[in-house]
Specification:
This protein is mainly beta and 104 residues long. It has strands spanning 7-12, 20-26, 29-35, 41-45, 59-61, 64-66, 73-75, 90-96, 99-103. The chain has one domain: Rieske Iron-sulfur Protein (3-layer Sandwich), CATH 2.102.10. A 6-stranded antiparallel beta sheet has the order 1-9-8-4-3-2, with no helix packed on it. Strands 5-6-7 form a 3-stranded antiparallel beta sheet, with no helix packed on it. It is globular and about 40 Å long. It binds FE2/S2 (inorganic) cluster. The site of FE2/S2 (inorganic) cluster has 9 residues, from loops.
């Protein structure tokens, strides 16, 4: 099986405050990148599958994000949602030399 991944540099890690998320537009798609207080990075689609709430403005911690609109929760690694049938796409993201590298 061949998979093609693309690595995109989203710029300085410092652009995201610890414990917060930020929305980036990548190839016309909104991607939320979260920087947990413990330093771990996660990335998911930005729009909540419930009613399009901006997940990047939600509270992220413990490997989950809580949507700011109606508090549905999503696992930042698997994308699995707290409500039946809801899930988000998640992406690999890492910090290298202080820059955020996203893999699509
Ligand atoms: S829009 Fe996210 S929980 Fe409703």
């Amino acid at each position: 099986m061949s998979t093609s991944t693309q690595t995109i540099n989203l710029g300085s890690l410092e652009a995201i405050a610890l414990g917060q998320g930020r929305c980036f537009i990548v190839g016309g798609e909104e991607i939320a990148v979260f920087r947990q207080r413990d330093g771990q990075l996660f990335a998911t689609q930005n729009r909540c599958p419930h009613k399009q709430g901006p997940l990047s403005e939600g509270v992220a911690g413990g490997g989950k994000v809580i949507c700011p609109l109606h508090s549905h929760k999503f696992d930042l690694v698997t994308g699995a949602g707290s409500e039946h049938g809801e899930c988000v796409k998640s992406f690999r993201v890492s910090a290298v030399n202080g820059e955020i590298l996203l893999q699509l």
